Amino acid sequence: KLNKLEDIVSLCKRRGFIFQSSEIYGGLASCYDYGPLGSELKRNVRNAWWKSTVQMRDDVVGLDSSILMHPMVWKSSGHADKFADLITECRKCHTRTRIDHLLNQEGKKAEDIGQDPRIISDKVCPNCGAVGEFTEPMAFKLMFETQMGANADDNMAVYLRPETAQGIFANFRNVLDSTRVKVPFGIAQIGKSFRNEVTTKAFIFRTREFEQAELEFFCEPGTDEQWYEFWKEKRFNWYVEYGINKDNLRMRDHDSDELAHYAKACIDVEYRFPFGSGDWQELEGVANRTDYDLRRHQQGMRSMNNFIESGRDLAKVELKDEQPDYHKGPLSFFDEQKKQRYIPYVIEPSAGVDRSTLAFLVDAYDEEEVKGETRNLLRFHPDIAPIKAAVFPLVKKEGMPEIAHNIVDSLRAHWNVFYDQKGAIGRRYRRQDEAGTPFCITVDGQVKEDGTVTVRDRDTMAQERVHQDKLSAYLFEKMSC
Ligand code: ATP
Question: 400 in ligand 1 pocket by Cβ < 6 Å?
């Protein structure tokens, strides 16, 4: 299986899945646009996550919080002070590189690596190849900062969110008060996040603007380990359910030195991508974050006067100490049955929509020899496929285009279908194979005799005759696999 990244990138561009952002101006580094097929694909990935995480469950509700949030959110979450990569600059070519990447220890935190310049003294610049020409390690902040407010007196620095999770914590109280949820329950959200990444990676794997699908699942302390196990399995199986080969997936426990100080446990769901040093790369993290976030936000809420007094300068704000009865604070939960108040623990599955879209593309990509020719195809699960069925009249006469249009109209209410009457039928099939369309419906002369058309299966290329009135039922049955 030749699932090389270059093949995927070229297919994506050729067929309108993914383009470089601002390409007509030479492109903007590590930003990408999803074209006609890509936007459908990514929406299906998003919908599949939402269906499994929210729609199919009684205990999870959705949220869509704003990208810009009060700066204090980032003080409480720790991002304002700690969300930085340790980097170095090559004295020869001035390219900056993450130290963990130079050391080939992706994911290691600055405090684990240490800032001793000797650790990189013999390393090679990945850009120009110079050896040992690095500056001392320095912290590079990853949050994008911007200004908000038109008047000088209400103007302040705000940040593009680097994760969607904090919007959930900030709305925990609102959701508790406005719905009938009770712990254990979760709040899910999908949305854009932004990080001024130092080293950007292959294609849409690591970009500066990306989409996350995050769930914060609130549970009673003491039940957190069970829920952690539950969500680990559930999230791993989601990738398998939507077609990713199990052999290309694994769960990797974080080493104790990799674990964030507040997390009790964390695993990464990893996919074997066709690039990078070790190939296995993170798709998603599942963490037991304990009651850290809600407690920190309680501290932040009490520290608002410090924010005002500091002149709205996060660097100068000190969070007030936690009160001894913090567990009764505004972000606590009252268990009616047990007559107990506590701050819930949180299990957080945090996935990247773009990264999983890339994994679905890579895993679905296939090449095979058919009658001496190479057939490129994307073996997408039907729910993920951008187009579910393509409808072709065999020829542009004898009423076939009209019948084909009628079929399109009848199927369109349920699925994204595509009409194509141009070119040889074999070429039309190949184009749909490359788009990952699971079914091609061809209207030929026989429709006049018995009302049937052919349905071709993308993977086996086998064709069946189906009555045109039974197409919806046929596709419904085939797609609910
Ligand atoms: P990495 O170590 O790869 O930088 P991370 O551990 O910082 O990732 P998290 O903060 O755990 O990532 O974010 C959760 C998920 O969001 C990741 O598993 C990934 O799928 C996605 N993600 C994070 N950063 C990016 C990015 N720059 N581009 C695309 N997706 C991203």
Answer: no
Answer whether 254's CB lies under 8 Å from 388's CB: no
Using the mean position of ligand 1's atoms as its centre, give its distance from the Cα of residue 284 in Å: 7
Name the residue of 113, 355, 356, 358 to mutate for ligand 1: max ligand atoms within 8 A of Cβ.
355
Is 313 among the domain residues? no
Residue 2 within a domain? no
* Domain of residue 433, residue span: 387-479
pTM of the model: 0.93
Task: With respect to residue 395, please indicate whether it lies within any of the assigned structural domains.
Answer: yes
The complex's ipTM works out to: 0.97
- Does residue 443 lie within any of the structural domains? yes
Q: What's 450's domain CATH number?
A: 3.40.50.800
Query: Residue 2: pLDDT above 50?
Result: no
Instruction: Please give the tally of structural domains in the chain.
Output: 1
Residue nearest to atom 14 of ligand 1 (CA): 350
